[in-house]
Automatic annotation (TrEMBL):
PANTHER family: APOPTOSIS-INDUCING FACTOR 1, RIESKE DOMAIN-CONTAINING PROTEIN. Keywords: 2Fe-2S, FAD, Flavoprotein, Iron, Iron-sulfur, Metal-binding, Oxidoreductase. This is Rieske domain-containing protein. The keyword rRNA-binding does not apply. SUPFAM superfamilies: FAD/NAD(P)-binding domain, FAD/NAD-linked reductases, dimerisation (C-terminal) domain, ISP domain. The lineage of its organism: Eukaryota, Metazoa, Chordata, Craniata, Vertebrata. It comes from Alosa alosa (allis shad). One of its GO terms (molecular function) is 2 iron, 2 sulfur cluster binding. Belongs to the FAD-dependent oxidoreductase family. Transmembrane segments: none annotated. InterPro entries: FAD-oxidoreductase/Apoptosis, FAD/NAD-bd_sf, FAD/NAD-binding_dom, FAD/NAD-linked_Rdtase_dimer_sf, Reductase_C, Rieske_2Fe-2S, Rieske_2Fe-2S_sf. One of its GO terms (cellular component) is cytoplasm. PROSITE patterns: RIESKE (PS51296).
Amino acid sequence: MDPRAMVVRLICKSAFQVANIKAFAAVRASRCNSYVTSFRSYNVAAGRPTLYRLSKLWFTRTLGSYSTLQPDKGKMANSNDSTEITEVVCLESDLQDGQMKEVEVDKHKILLVKSKGQFSAVGSRCSHYGAPLIMGTLLGDRVRCPIHAACFNVKTGDIEEYPGLDCLPTYKVKIEDGKIYVTLNTKATKRVKEMSHRAPEVCHTVMLIGGGPASLVCAETLRQNNYSGRIIIVTKDNLPPFDKPKLSKAMNIEREKILLRPKEFFQQHDIEMWMEKAVLSVNTEAKTVTMDDNTVQQYNQLLIATGCRARRMACPGADLENVRLLESFNDAQDIHNLCAGKKTVVVGTSFIGMEVAAYLSDKAASVSVIGRSEYPYQLSLGPEIGKMTMRMLEEKNVKFYMNDNVAEILGENGMVKEVLLQNGGRLEADAVVFGIGVLPNSDFLKGSKIKTDQRNNIIVDKCMRTNVPDVFSAGDVVSFPLGVRGDELVNIGHWQLAHAHGRIAALAMVNKPTEINSVPFFWTALLGKSIRCTGYGHGYTDIVFKGKVEERKFLAFYMKDNIMVAAASLNFDSAVGLLSEMMATGKVITRAQIESDDLSWLQLP
């Protein structure tokens, strides 16, 4: 049949279908894409690209842009395929310098900002978990999310501090006759930076060991900086990079809901994912990596971002069948299923142990928590906050056995039956979950020239470079110089810092060395309440509180030599974000400021 006749016939058929499928967006999308793809294959192969373009034009005008009709799958709408809408959003006089306002264009929320006399408009939702940025903190040209402190440039929309991967969309702003007009050109809430692709003629390989956020951000940053060589991420996990902090907070979460990027993303940007492979050794002289399947891969530059593993308990019975550690997605699912309706003992009262206990409090038949200190979080957050969290869980019938430890786990037929405490107590148990700390995954480096500290953390400089040329390291496995503590070498296992490390390592790889200056930020979630922390409180001497801990609304300042080194809060989220941003800009917060009656500088609600 003549191809032009095919076009006419298909257009008539499709026009009839349009009225019947408007309510079925997914069907409409797949048909439109199918038609366009079929025409492209047929006509381009036959040397008729013009006919393909005409057919594509008709489908786009009739059914809508086929690229924006596709199921989300983590892809952002293309602004070039969207219709522009311009509306008056407010008066010029409505915003003073240093203020922001949430406005709407075509029922789509936009963040309007006035900074240094200039108006700008960006997406209103944080690209991490979608929190409203209007509730956050604006300092200069940066807005910081109130929930997990991701930071965005209000001029460019670019993400400048993590967690999260994507930037904000930006919108055109015009001022006319005292009115502010904003032009909406996309309803996407996120924007992925443009990335290059692999060029076959480029013989250069960057290998990234570890499947966490450090490797992912490193790979993306390389592509965003026009790196066109080969990128390989190798991980022992059976998933591509995923949102690991969720595992202890929502242990039965679906696999697809924790992926940081869909699998198609890696194919689209020429990033190879090698899953279920463990690295056995690194030869920095030959520049090779050997894996457990006997694969030997050559590299030109190497990132080691292997993170940490859960510490195992050295006590009799720790190897019984229903004793668990939380390290992977499968572990989380297994613990959820194993403990449901069963008597569960959780060992450890720091962040993982407490989150697991809180999660299981309404799912297990009983939850008992064993801790070595008087209160949970005693070394990290202090006894006052620890006592409060203990009370929160006790209200959900969680029982605590503090100032104690496990002497032995008793079993029958290979299964846990009882936990014997060091003080002589005995706890009935069907399952035991350990959350007693972590160890760095650096054992495979033994015999190499890469330097580690006494705890086997890899030592790096402020650009994430190791002592070996072309070898970088990032994330929980490193000791790095922390700027807010005078470049003291520290090991901090925070999700946010792993992202930042990956970006800094990538910039060094492409000869754009940039020193790490991120301020640590961390959060923990218990029974629907989040405690948020910023800074580095190790070695603090005392805590100054604003609000009342017992009422579960407080702001805690951790002091050392009359200077604030860290802060934590419950229900004072924006204040912690502000403190984090102040520290990031080099501001020193003194005891006199904190103890003053005038706390307007904190912008408390």
